[in-house]
Design brief:
The chain has 24 helices and 13 strands. By secondary structure, the chain is an alpha+beta fold. The chain has three domains: 232 residues, D-Maltodextrin-Binding Protein, domain 2, CATH 3.40.190.10; 147 residues, 3-Layer(aba) Sandwich (D-Maltodextrin-Binding Protein, domain 2); 108 residues, no CATH class. The strands form four sheets. Strands 1, 2, 3, 4, 10, 11 and 12 form a seven-stranded mixed beta sheet that branches. Strands 5-13 form a two-stranded antiparallel sheet. A two-stranded antiparallel sheet has the order 6-7. Strand 8 and strand 9 form a beta hairpin. Helix 1 packs parallel to helix 4, helix 2 crosses helix 3 and helix 4 packs antiparallel against helix 17. The chain is globular. The chain starts with 7 loop residues before the first helix and ends with a helix.
């Protein structure tokens, strides 16, 4: 790239002095010259036209001090340090974009929901809360708002259909409640250079009877993990798997982020299984949660879920570095970049920006990666038509408790940082794609070879099988916190996989029961089903054309399947 991807210093120098008195197209043109250039889905005339709309639409709110908040990742740092000052200079609306921990964002949001006090004028929180926002009805219905009170503050060039994750923020009522700001998936990561080594290929074929390649299922992943674990490569002992297991809140994400669906938990359905989702939560035909345990037709403690936990435990013990079991998410994240991990089944693409830095042992001298990312392998219970992994979608949310004028001013900022004018540049900085027009930009043709398959994946039809937590989860903050404690008991050895999931589903149903009794969600709240055995509920599911809960397989082994990475990528472009 000839232009700096960040350019933060120049942008800050231009916009730090911005004030309402100077909010006009002169500031907008300076921003386009210094920061955007050709890294935009719009040509220069289109950029200026879009920013002119922001200048005009912001006039009623000029001089206001607006506060918004998000978690701390590279994309939001760019927004806070570069785009917020630019927006202030262009519109005269002063934006303070706070960066805090993800858990703190949810805590602030919960506090505002419970107290009605306006803590922030806009939140970027995960679309995992879509079920919460829809049922509690405390977040603004953006579809209604854009067509009504906020029509004059809604960019005619917003183009919702260009957002690749808009289905994630759409509730069963058909309305959009959140606007995606950044997205990343968890995929399969592997050392392409090792997998392509003729000596390793021959040795693997001799030992296992099939080709070393990208694993399509967990049986192949396990063989590859066994094959590489204990080898010495480049003077270092190698491990065939990487994970983390410390009893910590981050352990919850490891499992709520669709691990069970990768095993084959829940029902078919894109973006989420229906009526049983990847958490094992079941809803009725009115989208009301009716259970989590198998006894109520759920699947949180069903055979597929237990299988998923047991595989996690077995692989950690047999194939991961000894210290992995005591690590948190943030501690384990940098480990593959150290050069002694052959593959990782559960790897977030948000790590890509750190993986492409110069000088790492996992990259070549010319900056191209020795590694690649690919679709995640699936477990033995998985069926075609199920989701195959998780995609994080940090999304703008506006609470009804925020005064209208403040919400509209914050809405303008949200549209600015997600606009076609700036999104290509923002995508280069954070590599967290939200728009198809950004993915299609020619600059990513140029950069793709250095990103290990990220662009190829996001441009492929495969990405549709990756999605965030869906609308079956009625209260994400309350339910999500149960997971790390239950899984932590299994990880520490305090409970078996079955006992841990039995406990988890019972705790989830206790929350559902409290919500049902409170009536706080009205007609959208839980209505717990009667209890029966697994055979009853599976027969009921099959009669209705569904799957979950599936009975335990007599043999959970399967025939390993791999695919050549280059052929996989070619198959995407052929579709």
């Amino acid at each position: 790239m000839t232009r700096s991807l960040l350019g933060a210093a120049s942008a800050l120098a231009l916009f730090a002095m911005g004030s309402p008195a100077f909010a006009d197209m002169e500031a907008a043109r300076a921003f386009l010259d210094s920061e955007i250039g050709e890294l935009s889905a719009l040509d220069r005339a289109g950029q200026e036209a879009e920013l002119q709309w922001f200048v005009d639409a912001a006039r009623p709110f000029a001089g206001m001090d607006i506060r918004v908040v998000s978690e701390t990742i590279a994309t939001h740092e760019y927004e806070s340090k570069v785009l917020a000052p630019a927006f202030t200079a262009i519109t005269g609306i002063k934006i303070t974009h706070d960066l805090i921990g993800e858990g703190d964002v949810v805590e602030k949001l919960q506090t505002q929901m419970q107290s009605g006090e306006n803590l922030y004028d806009g939140y970027i929180n995960d679309s995992d809360l879509i079920g919460t926002h829809w049922r509690y009805q405390q977040a603004r219905n953006l579809t209604e708002w854009m067509a009504g009170d906020a029509a004059a503050a809604t960019n005619p060039g917003l183009d919702l259909q260009d957002f690749i994750g808009i289905s994630f923020t759409t509730a069963p009522d058909g309305a959009v409640y959140q606007l995606p700001d950044q997205q990343f998936a968890n995929l399969y990561w592997f050392r392409h250079d090792w997998f392509s080594d003729p000596a390793f290929q021959a040795e693997f074929k001799e030992k296992y009877g099939y080709d070393l390649g990208v694993p399509v299922n967990w049986a192949a992943y396990e063989d590859i993990a066994e094959f590489f674990t204990g080898k010495t490569i480049d003077g270092r002992k190698v491990y065939g798997h990487m994970d983390y297991g410390k009893k910590d809140p981050s352990l919850g994400w490891r499992f709520t982020d669709a691990w069970l669906s990768m095993a084959g938990n829940g029902d078919k359905g894109i973006p989420n299984g229906l009526p049983v989702d990847e958490w094992g939560l079941k809803v009725d035909d009115k989208a009301r949660p009716v259970g989590s345990c198998v006894a109520r037709g759920g699947d949180t403690n069903g055979p597929a879920a237990v299988y998923s936990i047991q595989k996690y435990l077995d692989w950690m013990k047999a194939y991961a570095p000894p210290e992995a079991g005591g690590m948190t998410f943030s501690e384990s994240g940098p480990v593959p970049a150290q050069g002694h991990i052959a593959q990782q089944i559960f790897w977030y693409t948000t790590f890509t920006a750190d993986m492409v830095k110069d000088g790492l042992p996992i990259n070549n001298a010319d900056g191209t990666p020795k590694w690649r990312m690919a679709p995640s392998p699936h477990g033995v219970y998985w069926k075609d038509g199920m989701k195959l992994g998780y995609q994080d979608a940090g999304s703008w949310t506006f609470m009804k408790s925020t005064p209208d004028d403040r919400a509209k001013a914050a809405w303008l900022y949200a549209q600015f940082v997600t606009s076609k004018t700036v999104d290509v540049k923002k995508s280069h900085v954070g590599l967290t794609f939200i728009r198809q027009s950004s993915l299609d930009h020619a600059s990513f043709d140029e950069r793709a070879p250095k990103l290990g398959g990220l662009i190829e994946f996001y441009r492929s039809p495969a990405r549709l099988q990756w999605s965030p937590t869906g609308t079956n989860v009625p209260d994400y903050p309350r339910l999500a916190q149960l997971w790390w404690q239950a899984i932590g008991d299994a990880s520490s050895g305090a409970k078996t996989a079955q006992a841990a999931m039995d406990s988890l589903c019972a705790e989830q149903e206790a929350v559902l029961q409290r919500l049902q009794r409170s009536g706080v969600m009205g007609d959208l709240g839980p209505v717990l089903a009667e209890e029966h055995d697994l055979a009853y509920w599976h027969a009921d599911a099959v009669a209705k054309g569904n799957l979950a809960p599936q009975p335990k397989l007599e043999n959970e082994d399967e025939t390993p399947i791999t695919v050549n990475y280059e052929e996989l990528v070619k198959s995407w472009t052929a579709e």
